[in-house]
């Protein structure tokens, strides 16, 4: 089921993280606060738009085609995705950038490790989202085209570029060498193709659950936006820069999905 085109597609988001993490080799110092906020907002906008156009709407169409109540699988899948990320957020030790308090179960891990785990945690739903859309493409779902799947992968890759930099630059500032900061930053994105591949294999075994998986990924991504990205974009001195980033990200992802879909 993992053909060459699909394998390339699920690797695209990781390429975005790789490029972003590589910025630590060329940039000096930490990322400017205003730039970090607009990038966090941008990532929020991309993920919200992707959740609607690439995941929820196709799930509703698929539910109708299967003869199910069109709102039931989306609602159940969405809430299960939110609950799954809530569970991971509660159990996995991690720490967000700009916060002094770790979250999850008590751990003696270093701050750099906790920062990496925080980014890795919210890369899981992004990988699932790409995986479930490419799974729909592989089984010939009429509402999912190569162009729409590619649009989702590119959109997530674009928001992964600043995300990779947001993790690698602070790691460098905390004392790691440029090479190690780059490697660790890139490593946080490696979970995405793994999550995508596992989702594709699961969908191949149980095709009728596709609407649930689409909305599960949507719920997980929205959880990350509400729990992490938007609050971090609004930290510190109040400004509208994060909101502007959200608008730009949402508009870009919407245009990509509609134009290519």
Features:
261 residues, 77% helix, mainly alpha, globular, single chain
Number of strands: 0
Q: Total domains, how many? A: 1
Number of helices: 9
| SS content category | mainly alpha
* Helical content class: over 70%
Distance between the termini: 22 Å
Unreliable spans are none
What is the rounded Rg? 18 Å
Topology as H/E string?
HHHHHHHHH
Instruction: Indicate the proportion of strand residues.
Output: under 5%
Mean pLDDT: 86
Overall morphology: globular
Q: How many strands, what sense, and barrel or not for the largest sheet? A: none
Written description of the protein model:
The protein is an all-alpha fold and 261 residues long. It has one domain (34-161, 194-260). It is 77% helix and 0% strand. The protein has helices at 4-26, 33-65, 72-91, 111-138, 146-173, 178-187, 191-205, 210-233, 241-260. Helix 1 runs antiparallel to helix 7 (191-205) and helix 5 (146-173) runs antiparallel to helix 9 (241-260). It is globular, with a radius of gyration of 18 Å. The protein starts with a helix and ends with a helix. The mean pLDDT is 86.
Fold topology:
Layout: H1 4-26, H2 33-65, H3 72-91, H4 111-138, H5 146-173, H6 178-187, H7 191-205, H8 210-233, H9 241-260
Helix pairs in contact: 1-4, 1-5, 1-6, 1-7, 2-3, 2-5, 2-8, 2-9, 3-8, 4-5, 4-7, 4-8, 5-6, 5-9
Structure summary:
By secondary structure, this protein is mainly α. It has one domain.
